[in-house]
Amino acid sequence: MQNLFINGKWTEASSGETFNSYNPANGEVIGSVQMGGIEDTEKAIRSARDAFHDWTTTNITYRAELLRQYLYRLRKERNALSELVTREVGKTLEESDGEIEDALNLVDYLVGEGKRYFGYVAPSTRKNRLAYTQRCAYGVAGLLTPWNFPGSILFWKMAPALLCGNTVVVKPSSEAPLTAGALVSYGVDIFPKGVLNFIPGKGSTVGDHIVGHDAVDVISFTGSTSIGRKIRNSAGIKEVSLELGGKNPALIMPSANVQSAVKDTVNGAFGVAGQRCTATSRVIVHEDIFDDFKTALVEDSKALKVGSGLDSGTDMGPLINQKQVDIVHGYVKNAVKDGARILCGGKSLPEIGPNFYAPTVLDNLRTDMQIAQEEVFGPVLCLFKCSCLDEAIEIANDVPYGLSSSIYTSDLQEAFRGTNELASGIVVVNNPPGAVEAQLPFGGVKESGIGREGGIEGIDEFSRTKTVYIDY
Ligand code: NAD
Fold first, then answer.
1. Residue 147 alpha carbon, nearest atom of ligand 1
2. How far apart are CA 216 and CA 138, in angstroms?
3. pLDDT (mean) for 159-176
4. pLDDT tens digits, one per residue of 349-390
5. Is the model's pLDDT at 96 over the cut of 90?
6. For the chain, how far is it from start to end, CA to CA, in angstroms?
7. Which domains does the chain have, with CATH numbers?
8. 118 CB-contact burial (10 Å; exposed 0-12 / middle 13-18 / buried 19+)
9. What is the pLDDT of residue 311?
């Protein structure tokens, strides 16, 4: 049973309610979880508030040292944690291991950043005055995470929040509470009582209560744009960062290495069964290479082995639940009604298990179609043809999202036009859009969100500047 963690103790939900977490590959229950409610959330926020003063007045290098201890424990559990991610959210073991590695790299990076928590000294206009800035924590941080990267996204929030001296209340996704609970469990006795609190439960109760609470000072949310918009509206004057959805394009120009662009596009579109904010969801291919690219793309997509993420040789796992399968299939059906053509896939695969959907490539699309504009969050790739780079960039930018983009070319002019003109928070040249490194900021523009995780910018999300004047 996964319990709540409040004020230094594992505890049951005050309502007595529980819910289950399921393996999406076979529908089996993998564990039960206490269903936190408003009363529990209130206690967690109060305990975080009470613990804040003593925690934030510790030295940041001490807090970094505690993170290091946490990191050492997590490293030892890497394989078990990867397996749990696969069992709970369905991605392949290789993908889960990559996710845990990302989480560990981030914590490792932040341990070092603890020694570089710089302010600056500025010249004063007054005589005999020293003027400088220093960084300080916000207070209580409410951390709301999605299910698709239950390990890494938890740490992208929790590690910098704790490092900067905030106390935290973590609300994991109800689709992946066991992974989050396991990860939190390795840290609970490292941090003082009340510093780290964990409340699984519904977004509409636990999440909403955290977001609207006056004693919570900063909200860090990763999830869908629709919930992100709600959070922005109900957070009041708290600091809010939002990491939201994407509709990420890959542009393939004639000078690209077509073979590796095809391979990358298949990985980018169908990795984690397309359930990634940075999934390649649109590929825009120059007409000179379009036919060759399309043939190879469809062939490679059809060749993917779909199955349980625990089985060796599986290329693509299931979707998270039946609701998501229905959503994805609804998008495909609407697209076909609007004139799209299915080049492969376009159907669920009940013979493999309950939540499997075939890797799907569509063409004959217009940019104003629903499928070309909205995040599908499943293994569906939209294929477009363009006649020049101007047109490719126009198609790429013609969506409400702007998380990540990529361009494949060996022409320097084209590469720099791509990096300068693609409207997204991240641009990648000659690789799929989904690049993430701990020491660099990650985040989007437009409806893909506000704020950044990772890098120095990720520390800025959890600390503010105080200005100090000392007259002598
Ligand atoms: P979701 O928006 O359904 O849920 C995210 C979290 O918000 C969950 O913990 C949920 O319980 C909580 N929540 C739901 N309603 C809430 C409310 N009213 N108030 C407060 N919290 C609430 O998203 P999901 O299905 O878990 O994740 C998929 C989405 O996340 C996709 O859109 C994907 O693109 C996005 N995502 C973005 C990034 C990024 O870094 N930009 C990374 C991963 C996933």
1. 26
2. 9
3. 98
4. 999 999 999 999 999 999 999 999 999 999 999 999 999 999
5. yes
6. 60
7. 4-244+448-471 (3.40.605.10), 248-429 (3.40.309.10)
8. exposed
9. 97
The residue whose CA has the least distance to atom 8 of ligand 1 is 173
If you average pLDDT over residues 202-216, what whole number do you get? Answer: 98
How far apart are the C-alpha atoms of 35 and 47, rounded to whole Å?
A: 19
Spatial CA neighbour of 182 closest among 193, 194, 170, 192? 170
Ligand 1 proximity of 144 Cβ (cutoff 6 Å): yes
Over its C-alpha atoms, the chain yields an Rg (Å, rounded) of 23
Q: Is 230 in the pocket of ligand 1 (CB under 6 A)?
A: yes
**Ligand 1 centre from 230 Cα, in Å?**
11
Closest ligand 1 atom to Cα of 377: 31
Using an 8 Å Cβ cutoff, are 14 and 40 in contact? yes
Evaluate: CB of 277 within 6 angstroms of ligand 1.
Answer: yes
Q: Tell me phi and psi for residue 380, to 5 degrees.
A: -130, 125
Q: What is the pLDDT of residue 391?
A: 98
Tokens, residue 190: 């490292």
Q: Does pTM surpass 0.70?
A: yes
Q: Which ligand 1 atom is at minimum distance from the Cα of 149?
A: 43
For ligand 1, whether the C-beta of 70 sits within 6 Å is no
Q: Which residue bears the tokens 């641009």?
A: 427
pLDDT, tens digit (0-9, with 9 covering 90-100), for 257-288: 999 999 999 999 999 999 999 999 999 999 99
